[in-house]
User: What shape does this take?
Amino acid sequence: MFDEMPGWHLVVIGDRKTPADYHLDHGTYVSPEHQEEIDKELSDLIGWNCIQRRNFGFLVALEMGAEMVAVVDDDNIPLAGWGTDVMAGRPVEANVFSTSLPAFDAIGATNYPHLWHRGYPLQLLPQRDYSQRSRQVVTPDVQADFWNGDPDIDAICRMQFAPDCTFDDEVFPLTSDTITPFDSQNTFITSSWLEHYFLFPGVGRMDDIWAAYYLQGKGASVVFGRASVIQERNPHDLIIDMKLEYVGYENNLAIVSEVAADPDALFRFLPEQTVAAFARYRTHF
Assistant: This one.
């Protein structure tokens, strides 16, 4: 699995529900106690039993001097060659899509044009247009790889289509000249951008999506890579997922419209404690 990937050092961030006897044969396990030693105030602001604990992984990677960080969900199974051809941080020829809309949806540019990425503003779905495409050399700061199997779509899309995907490798890499949602599910980030990449607690299932919007507002560029994992999705209640996504359904269009010009505009959509958590995180840089 990921602890056997050559050239990578696995870091696992524990939580209160992690078994007390959990250990790694290869890699680094960061226990809840160790996380509180790193920053008790940040730990309290993030809270427990939530995926945003992985922010401590970024701080551990920073301490290790990592040049590149890969963020991976625990229900993703790596395909052969995972992590061996990272495009982030180097020039790569990609399909570049142009759009007059305030946001770009990468999934719609694939062989599943009826689907859309979690966090894409729903109001824009009928207007998606992929007719303006060119081949260009780009140097991305972030590489968001796709996922065969159960893709990262929102609850509304999943309830309607329940897809099992095999994405066509030929459409990748792809990117856009417009802000775009990307997740923290199978994503490579150059470490120089970690200061501005924070998975926001307190905003439901928009934690990584709004992190992506903020990072791009700060100037980071992203390229989408071919599927390098298969997701065998952990059990989810889609109604609960939909409720946790509602804050995005309500605000994503306004956010993409504002953050591209002023990334700090995002803060007015965040709870006060979330803003405080981000401020505390940034004291480590």
About this structure: Strands lie at 11-13, 28-30, 68-72, 76-78, 92-97, 133-138, 142-149, 174-176, 186-190, 222-231.
